[in-house]
Amino acid sequence: MPTMIQMKRQSATDILGVIERIRYASQMSKATVLYSKVMMDNETALMAPENVVAFLFLEQYYYRAEGNASLSILITQEDGVQMVTILSPTTKESWLFERADITFSKIVRNVLSDIGFEVVMEWNEFTGTWDSVDNSEKQQE
Asked: Is residue 41 within 8 Å of 48, Cβ to Cβ?
């Protein structure tokens, strides 16, 4: 099953700042951006003014996966809220280590958490459903 994480925050900076934090984070130094696209409201009639959508496609080589782990990141900004969806297809499992797609997704999740994003939902590969994350419980721990 793929790794999927949804995160959100109130718009603190423009969406380009979010993209830059992902692309230039020290933890992402070995990742390669294969594709990046930003669509602003003036490029499409389907979006309301001041809404923005961005898409990033990244790859990083993992020895234990014997190949690249890829990551698709969709970032939307609408009505003062920024949402990020991180998707990574399953990579080869190694005997001793966590799957590379999970590791790669967690790196991006941590970069985004550092700038104020909170996890809203994560894909549960055992049940095949989205699990909501109650951030109020996490803050009390």
From this structure: yes
What is the full DSSP assignment across 98-133? --HHHHHHHHHHHHHHHTT-EEEEEEETTTTEEEE-
**Whether the predicted model's global pTM rises above the 0.85 cut:** no
pLDDT digits (tens, 9 = 90+) for 77-121: 888 899 999 998 876 665 556 788 888 999 999 999 999 999 998
The CB density around residue 94, as the number of other CB atoms within 10 Å, is: 14
Q: Which of 108, 94, 79, 81 is nearest to 5 (CA)?
A: 108
Q: In what order do the strands lie in the sheet with 67-78?
A: 32-40, 52-62, 67-78, 81-88, 3-10, 118-124, 129-132
Say how far apart CA 42 and CA 49 lie, in whole Å: 8
